[in-house]
Design brief:
With about 230 residues, this protein is mostly helical. It has 9 helices and 2 strands, in the order αααββαααααα. Strand 1 and strand 2 form a beta hairpin. The C terminus is likely disordered.
Length: about 230
């Protein structure tokens, strides 16, 4: 790694990486909805590429768990049921707890700087009460949290989980916390890191994930009463 502030070559992305990012983003924002079948010819035409790079990109997302293959039918975007939602957040908890421990042991100051910037973006989105921007800023905050750990492997594992998290939230937007509550939850995480309070930080990150599981369960419970016929 070069000295701080030293200019370094910008990594170039291959066509497969770019297409993978496009497909991942389409799943993230719901353009490719859960259960949607991916038509190879149509997607290649829309993206303006040949089928070779598209097939390779789709296989990457199969490996990540965002697409699944059905024999004689093709590739489909995954769907998430209630048990999947719980599993996503519990796995995120394991990864982000590990990231928090590494941050406290390695580079707390840098993490505070980066997370404060991410928190500012969340505050702006919350002030505008823009749910999409809030989801973007929320996801970016947690990406920065894992990235600040310095572990490329944790960061790689977190990427897919954050896309799956967004899929949960896209389906259940009404469960998202109020803007002020969302900001305060994340502010407490930054404060705990800044104060060097590892035990408090780990408790807060666990509460953050378990509270999210409860929120996402509630509509399903309500739906079983009155709106049982709706998806």
């Amino acid at each position: 790694m070069g000295r701080l502030g030293e200019l370094e070559p910008v990594p170039r992305k291959s066509t497969v990486e770019i297409v993978s990012d496009e497909l991942r983003s389409a799943i993230l924002y719901g353009s490719l909805e859960p259960g949607a079948q991916l038509g190879e010819a149509e997607l290649a035409a829309r993206l303006g590429i040949s089928r070779g790079p598209l097939r390779e990109a789709m296989q990457r997302l199969v490996q990540e768990g965002l697409l699944h293959s059905e024999p004689h039918r093709g590739l489909f975007v995954i769907t998430l049921d209630e048990s999947d939602v719980e599993d996503v957040y519990l796995t995120r908890l394991a990864i982000e707890r590990g990231a928090c421990e590494l941050i406290m042991a390695r580079n707390r100051g840098e993490a505070v700087v980066r997370l404060t910037e991410a928190l500012d973006a969340l505050v702006e989105a919350a002030r505008a009460r823009d749910r999409v921007a809030m989801s973007d800023a929320d996801q970016e905050f947690h990406q920065v949290l894992v990235s600040a750990s310095g572990s490329a492997r944790l960061e790689r594992m977190a990427q897919t989980l954050l896309v799956e998290t967004r899929m949960c939230l896209n389906a259940l937007q009404d469960t998202y916390p109020e803007p002020e509550e969302l900001v305060e939850e994340h502010r407490r995480l930054v404060d705990a890191i800044a104060d060097g309070e590892e035990e408090r930080l780990l408790r807060l990150i666990e509460e953050h994930m378990t509270d999210s599981i409860v929120r996402l369960r509630e509509p399903a419970g309500e739906a079983s009463g009155e709106g049982a016929g709706e998806d």
